[in-house]
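As a next step, we paired sequence with structure tokens, yielding the entry below.
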Amino acid sequence: MASPTPHDDERFDWQAAEADLSDPNGPDGPDAEVVDLDAARSRRQASAPDGDSDPDDDRPEGGPVLVDSVEAQRRPRFSLAGFRDAERVPIVPGWLRSRSEFAGNMAWAGGFGLHALAYHGLRAPKYTVKLAWRAPVGVGRTVRGYGRWLFDLEGEPVRQSVVRAAIDKPEEARTYQGLSRQRDRRVRWRGLTAIPAVLALFTLTGVLLAAPGAVQLAALTVAVAVFGFVGAPADKPLLDTAVVRTAAAPLTSVEVFHALAALNIKGINDAIRRGDNGKRWFTAPITRENGTGWRAEVELPRGVTASTVVDKREELAAALTRPLGCVWPEVNAEVHPGMLTLFVADKDLSRAKQNPWPLLKSGTVNLFKPFPFGTDPRGRVVTLTLMFASMIIGSIPRMGKTFALRLALLGACLDPRAWILAFDLKGTGDLSPLEPVAHRYRAGDDEEDIEYGIAAMREIRTEMRRRTKVIRELPPDLCPENKVTDDLASKKSLGLHPVVIGIDECQVWFEHPKYGDEFEEICTDLIKRGPATGITLIPATQRPDDKSLPTGISANAVLRFCLKVMGYRENDMVLGQSMFKSGIRATMFAKRDKGIGYLAGEGDDPTITRTFEIDSPTAKAVVTRARVLRERAGNITGHAAGHTVTTDAVRRDTILEDVLAVMGDEDPKLWSTVIVKRLAALRPDVYAGFTADQLREALKPHGVKTGQVWGTDPDTSETGNRKGITRAHVADALTKRDRDNGSAGRK
């Protein structure tokens, strides 16, 4: 007996079959009929309707449905569950729900109306002369047109053609006779209507002659305007053009489909060869957004990722015949990697006029709340929140990295409570406008500049440790989350004000042969623990790599702004691991896209952002206003108040001699904690607050390493193995240093 196959119409009943086999009198007993199943299947398939190739359709009506059949996979239509899961389109448009966007649109409309009114108002005398010049022509056209209508001259060409035809065809004379009678009736009727019109005209003329001069002038003005309008040439309009529009063509689904087909992407090409016309690719209608461009949501064919389209942005712009700066494809990873969000702007983003920074002339910043940082391709404001987050900025040279850093610091300086630390390691003075409000400021990469920087960063790390103790000792009702709050930052007695540190060309610090490791250690510590204590670090570099942005820093930054970079490594170094694979690719920006980059960490998804462009004179004006705000708040500190940072403690040229002095011959090995205590007693002005970690970093350039040593704590007499230093290693390092320098010590 053959086993049933999935093509059989009904389920096979094995129990009944076994019972039949065991019953000699049953249908499958010794005398049972043997059925050829292959022949039965052939007969059943032959009885199916012609042209039906669907295997699911040869089943009897109401039969079982295979789990992988087309019918089982077909999405239900108009089901309650489908509508419940569907995304509802907002009743009120987004620009009406956003107060700032609505105000911006209204301000633009008001400005547009005032411009047009002033433009045409200034040219009113010119328009008056043009109307007066054209009025006689308008009178002639009116009289001539009325005469043609009165005497039915419109039909004269037809009547003349019939007369000429009647020469060869006498029967056409009857046609002409009928046309003549029709013309006579029209002229008689129109002549009768002309009599009251003429009487009304004479009456109106008499009334105007007897009317006051103002009425006569008004009537004359109306007549000149009307007849001047009638007498205007068709190719010469009365009004000049107040606004020249370069209207961009609307974006259509057909245009997008053909553009995607032109990219030569394998998955798209395969789908088109299978007959896919792209109608199901568009999950929503293409919409107009904020009056700046068109937005299309495209669900690409299965297996095609939107990141492949992002990589071909230049080819996509060519296929759409739009400027490169107008075409902005993005991956909508919130749905799935194959969902493409395409925004096509009316104007090139890098060349379009951008609204001024909202904080340019008025307003303050609360660093616990977002402040304007730039605009997206749709013209919407993109904000930045610096509190509780550190930020890294990266790009190739000349793409707006320093301007972005300065803009972030300008926003911070408008919070009168904040300390601003600005370090311009490029040395060109791009951050010099911030000097009047900076708690610490330095420009340059000379040795004294580096020493100033390391002293300032040590100071900030000490400040961070003080803050952790303050926060730890605060009552739970004042500090429930064990971090700085807006209210706590406003209390001067606690000293928990925001601190924002901007470092341009930070690779100069991290690659320094003497202090590089210490800079890295301090910045890594600040970027990990600083945000909870109100300290924000913003390093910026034009060379994003492992040396310029150490892993401990790049991996722990929350905010990331990446302008144009050249490769995926630099992209992921700034924006985060696997961002390139996810389709967030700053490599797509062109060199003309200055100031445009991906801002990640502020919202749920990275946003293409064009920073507000503020040049140096404008930045100085903002800082002048910020200085006034700080003077009122009594918060002019540090460099802005004329105080400087002593670098004596930084110049550890005598570190080897000092360590040898505190160890002595009787201490061949000592714990690092004991050594720093003795150093502080030896030179309090230099080593006050010196830590074991700082000792390790200070000795590292000399080749002295710490290790496990046996020792005793002089205060507690406790013994054991701890991190320490061997005196012989220090002596060898001192001998080597003196030999290399050719002197008994450094000056």
